[in-house]
């Protein structure tokens, strides 16, 4: 992320007046309140998936897509480095730009991320340049984490996704059914679903280890734990992360006993033991990563 400070913030300040508290107190609105107000005022609060065009229109932001690598005229010379940009925000031009050729889900998240920069009071600047690292959920930059959080709130419409998901059984099938309705990737929906669940649950995300050839059959491909997401009740009762016992990788066939996947609806049920604890798991793949959703035995599921 590259950021240049702006000398003038008058137009931005005018926009933020729309999101001031309505009570007599002078306390600044929370991020959740800002998102709720924006969704409501832009007319997309009850519309799925969240309409990015309505948000951009309400904020009077223009959105363009082009090839950053060949069209960097908008950057000052000091910023023309080897950049692998995915999205950008120019406050002065009221412009959100995304890299041409991005998939629809990545493009929408990039737009929501830049909207996050635009509406958060502390993110007042002239130019934000974002690549895969700053758009990643694991970025270490505070200001980028905040923009990602706003993007997720816009994508999942605050608590709406969580509240709707809790009306269904605790299962990956809930995620694979709801994610397309919200225009979300299965990975982001799985993460959101798990970390906000009221029951003890976890998801272990495994990524394929890149070898010389990507043409390996699934059963021979090796996977490593990328990360683990847990709900608060799960962390309190069990653990917050897992690693593969006896080594850093595991073959696809060892993990789920299959030679190939037939799609996200192809879900495998599997038992798992971690120390003294026994779990029931569901495993599915989005074609790139493997997701193992972990639940205690049904008799142990208590809110």
How would you classify the helix and strand content by structural class? Answer: alpha+beta
Number of domains: 2
Based on CA inertia axes, which overall geometry fits? globular
* Number of separate helices: 11
Low-confidence stretches: 1-13
DSSP E strands, number: 11
Describe the protein's architecture and organization.
With 303 residues, the chain is α+β, with helices and mostly antiparallel strands. It folds into two domains: 2-155, no CATH class; 198-300, 2-Layer Sandwich (Beta-Lactamase), CATH 3.30.450. It has helices at 10-16, 31-42, 52-58, 104-119, 132-135, 142-155, 160-165, 172-182, 186-195, 232-237, 252-256; strands at residues 2-4, 62-66, 85-90, 95-99, 127-131, 202-208, 222-230, 250-251, 268-274, 277-285, 289-295. It has a six-stranded antiparallel β-sheet with strand order 8-7-6-11-10-9. It has a five-stranded mixed β-sheet with strand order 1-5-3-4-2.
